Structure formats: C-alpha cells, structure tokens
Amino acid sequence: GAGVSQSPSNKVTEKGKDVELRCDPISGHTALYWYRQSLGQGLEFLIYFQGNSAPDKSGLPSDRFSAERTGGSVSTLTIQRTQQEDSAVYLCASSPDSRWGYTFGSGTRLTIV
Amino acid sequence: GNSVTQMEGPVTLSEEAFLTINCTYTATGYPSLFWYVQYPGEGLQLLLKATKADDKGSNKGFEATYRKETTSFHLEKGSVQVSDSAVYFCALDANTGNQFYFGTGTSLTVIP
After folding, report:
1. Is B86 helix (H, G, I), strand (E, B) or coil?
2. Do B95 and A41 touch (CB under 8 A)?
3. CB contact under 8 A, A42 and B32
C-alpha cells in the first residue's frame, strides 16, 4: 500500500483482557518497528524486525507483550492480561533502510478501562 | 550510550515569529539525525534529516544543521504559520540497524 496501515485505530478494552494490534507495512520495506507513545512521554521502543533475522525484543516492557511478523510483511503486537498502564498510542513504522528514516502509521490508541 | 535531549515545551509563538527548537544528542559512532513532526490526530511524519556532520536538512521552510562539534541538531524556521502547530521530535539513528532514539517531543502552538 501507499503507507503504513495500522488497525484498529482505537481500541477500548477491559483490564485483564488480551488485545491484538495489527501493522501492515509499506510493501518492500524489510524493517518494521513498534513504538509506544504514552501521554506526555516520548516514544518508547518496543521491538524491531529486519527481514528474516531474529527480532530485537529488547524494548518489550514485560512478558505480557509479544509480537510476530508473518512472511516478512504484516506484524501483530499482542498484549496479554492488559493493565491500565498499557494505555498508550502504539505506533508501527517501516523502512527500507534506516538511513532514510521511518514511515510511521497513524497508530492505535489503546485505552484500558 | 545513545540518547537525544530536546527542548522542553510547550512553545507558543505568534504567526511569523522565528522558531528554534533545541536538540542535542549523545551517540557512539556517526549517527544520522532526524526531525519528525506529529500534527494533531496524526502519526509522525519525517520532516527532515541529515546523515553526516555539517549537512543541513531542510523541508517546508524548516532547517537543521548537523553540528558534530556541539552534538546538536537544532530545528529552525524563519517565519512560522498557524499550520505549523504540532509536536516536533528530534531523533537519532546510531546506524546499528535497530531502534531510533527519540527526544520527548516539543509541542508548538502558533497563534494568529
């Protein structure tokens, strides 16, 4: 597609439920990133995929968070047993080469009630 | 380690005023530097970039020069418009192939 597509754009869920967030990167972009943006905070790195290499999971805040990328394209970020502190905007970005910067999606606003 | 320190906001300016948003960085090696902009309700968009020392990135009237001696990449615009109201993020790519390092963002409001 023309840009990075994320779905859903908004998600409200009850504490303790699991959620899945989807990212469809730009076709041909081998690198895919997930970041989290909390109110009044900067961007927090979560995870990075590059081609078929093992992902860099160093930013995942707890074992409740996981992500996968199927076929080198679409990625899903899963949060299990959600907590209120998980409320944030989750941003996905892709890039053919990091020297050129990322292209971000519009994000998923996740609210845990 | 790698990090970006960005001027605290919020910043409020009158239309046609001069804008500077300060950004300094710490990095190992030779990073690339970026400014991203986030308009209300939208995702982050790449505004400009510089990949080596003394490079000047420019776009939409905004400029930033990669200063290795002062480890800075300050964003400037000579005459801001109401449509420039947004949050601006300075970012660093350490060229290690994984994450970018972002500043905390500076909110700019331009009033007519």
Report:
1. strand
2. no
3. no
Distance CA A76, CA A69 (A): 6
Question: For B32-89, how does the pLDDT look when each residue is reduced to its tens digit (9 = 90+)?
Answer: 999 999 998 888 999 999 999 999 999 999 999 999 999 999 999 999 999 999 999 9
> Nearest Cα to B100, choosing from A29, A94, A30, A40?
A94
| pLDDT digit string (tens) for chain A, length 113 residues | 579 999 999 999 999 999 999 999 999 898 999 999 987 677 899 999 988 888 999 999 999 999 999 887 899 999 999 999 999 999 999 988 766 778 999 999 999 99
Q: Is the peptide bond before B10 cis (omega within 30 degrees of 0)?
A: yes
Q: For chain A, where are the alpha helices, taking DSSP H only? A: none
Half-sphere exposure (Cβ direction) of B102: Cα atoms closer than 13 Å: 24
Helix (H, G, I), strand (E, B) or coil at A84: helix
What part of A 54-113 touches B (C-beta under 8 Å)? Answer: 56, 59, 91, 93, 98-107
Tokens matching residue B105: 């963002």
Q: How far apart (Å, rounded) are the C-alpha atoms in residues A16 and A83?
A: 6
With beta carbons less than 8 A apart as the criterion, state whether B61 and B47 touch.
no
